[in-house]
Specification:
The longest helix has 13 residues. A hairpin with a 6-residue loop joins strand 2 and strand 3. Helix 2 crosses helix 3. The chain is built from five helices and four strands, in the order H-H-H-E-H-E-E-H-E. The protein is of the alpha+beta class. Helices cover 35% and strands 19% of the residues. The chain has a four-stranded antiparallel sheet with strand order 2-3-1-4.
Length: 155
C-alpha cells in the first residue's frame, strides 16, 4: 500500500497508468482491450486512482516554441531567511515562470521559465524576478536544447 495516498496499487493499476501517461485520451474501452479487462472495471479503477490523488489531472503537452516561447531557462535562487512564503507566492504570479522547485544545495529554489526571446528573458529576470523581495542571489542557465524529457513518473 502506498503510504502517501493510502491506496493499494497493483500491476493492473500500473499498466493503466502507463497507458494513460502515454496518451491520456485513450478510451477506457481501448485500455480494457489491451489489458483484457472490462471497460467498467477500468473506469472504476481510474476513478479510484483519481479520488486517491494518484492521478492528479490530465494535460495537453504543448510545444512552448509553437506558442511564442523561444527561450527556456533554469534559474537558481537563494532565498533570504524569513521571506520564503511571501517570495515564493509572488513568483507564482510572474508570467513565464512554469515550475518552482524547493531544493537542497547551492540554490534554495530552482525554477523553469519561458520567454519569447533573450530580451524577454532579460526583462523577466531583471524586472520581475530581481524585483521580488526575499532573494539575494540568482543564476540563470539558458536551455540550449532538450535531449530527453520524460512525461510523468515511471510506473
Amino acid at each position: 500500500m502506498d503510504t502517501e495516498t493510502g491506496v493499494e496499487i497493483d500491476e493492473t493499476d500500473r499498466e493503466i497508468l502507463r497507458l494513460l501517461q502515454a496518451d491520456a485520451r485513450t478510451p477506457f474501452s481501448e485500455i480494457a482491450r489491451e489489458i483484457d479487462m472490462s471497460s467498467a472495471t477500468v473506469h472504476e479503477r481510474v476513478s479510484r486512482l483519481e479520488e486517491a490523488g494518484v492521478i492528479q489531472g490530465y494535460h495537453a503537452d504543448v510545444d512552448p516554441s509553437a506558442v511564442g516561447y523561444g527561450v527556456s531557462a533554469l534559474v537558481g535562487l537563494r532565498v533570504e531567511q524569513g521571506h520564503e512564503d511571501e517570495s515564493l507566492s509572488r513568483l507564482r504570479d510572474v508570467d513565464g515562470v512554469r515550475e518552482i522547485h524547493l531544493t537542497t544545495g547551492e540554490w534554495d529554489v530552482v525554477m523553469r521559465v519561458f520567454a519569447e526571446n533573450t530580451d524577454g528573458l532579460r526583462d523577466l529576470m531583471f524586472e520581475e524576478i530581481a524585483d521580488t523581495e526575499g532573494f539575494d542571489r540568482s543564476q540563470t542557465m539558458v536551455v540550449l536544447g532538450t535531449d530527453y524529457e520524460a512525461v510523468g513518473v515511471e510506473i
